[in-house]
Input
Amino acid sequence: MTTPSPVLDSIRDLLPGFRERADESERLRQVPEQSVKELEETGFFRMLQPARFDGLESDPVDFFTAVRLIASADGSTGWISSVLGVHPWQVALFADEAQQAVWGSDTSTRLSSSYAPTGKAVLADGGYTLSGKWSFSSGSAHAARVLLGGLVFNEDGNVVDFKTFMIPRRDYEILDVWNVVGLRGTGSNDIVVTDVFVPEAFTLSMSDTGRCFGPGQEQNPSDLYKLPFHSLFTSTITSPIVGMATGAYAEHVEMQQQRVRAAYLGEKASSDPFAAVRIARAGSEIDAARALLMANIREEQACVARGDKIPLQLRLKVRRDQCSAPSARSTRSTRCSRRRVGGRSPRGPTSSGARRDAHAGRVHAANDPERAEDVRRARVRPQDRPGDVLT
Output
């Protein structure tokens, strides 16, 4: 049994501040710099970073636990924390030249991302020429580099690969387009790249990550970097949603304990057996979501620890459960908590904040249950579908 990361205790101390700044996040359409700085000081962004670059190489279960805690206080802060915090794991799979470029002079460098292959890369001498426009790069204002998905075309115009391209801040533009209702504070703006040369070492093939391989494993041999990309990265999207539901649930329970129903002759809401059943159901949904997500990660970790190849069926089950159970269960729990909360509820933060954020996160492409189920039924091997970012 592993010892929980000390980062978790530091995160718990920061939750009141994140909660107080939730309105500021919405107003700025960005998570306040103070919150990002506080997270940096706890070591959170180093949890999945290689030890040779001052990283902690933490248990991913601890990482996702920290994400849920943060998101329980503020959905937007939890979302960008999860997204920015998982990228060091992928950078560790890049060639050493790219790792050195990111952390060689500053081990606190952060990266944002947009993985959908909406960019086009053309083969060039020693690398690729990349152009395109990408949406939904959460936390991009707090990052010095970006990871972008793109299809690689040969001279005949045929697609030959699907890669992740690492681009420094000087070579891309951020378009301020994030005007939304849910997860408003994530600053998930657009990224534009125009004819930028990307050296081979600063790319990573999705065909390689699909088979749990990356050239950086030579320098970073930890079992942490042998886990499936799509298991970790899709859990990165689900974990903050579970956290948002947890925060909404806790606030709802506290409100119900204090609430008196004037229309029912002063009856205490806490005495209502029907309300108690709804609260119990909501709590059960959240607990089940959390347990399922973590159990699947533990099962994959066990395979890696034994030196076994992670079975295809397990990887597909992880994807199925990640989107159809945790995220769906969590959003169902917010609806369950909302019922019969009284006429004052629309003015409360539970209604206006956590539920909107959770439902906004739920529609992320990684949480498409029909897509995951189609892939599971088809028994498609990840290496056979290099263009499927959701597998």
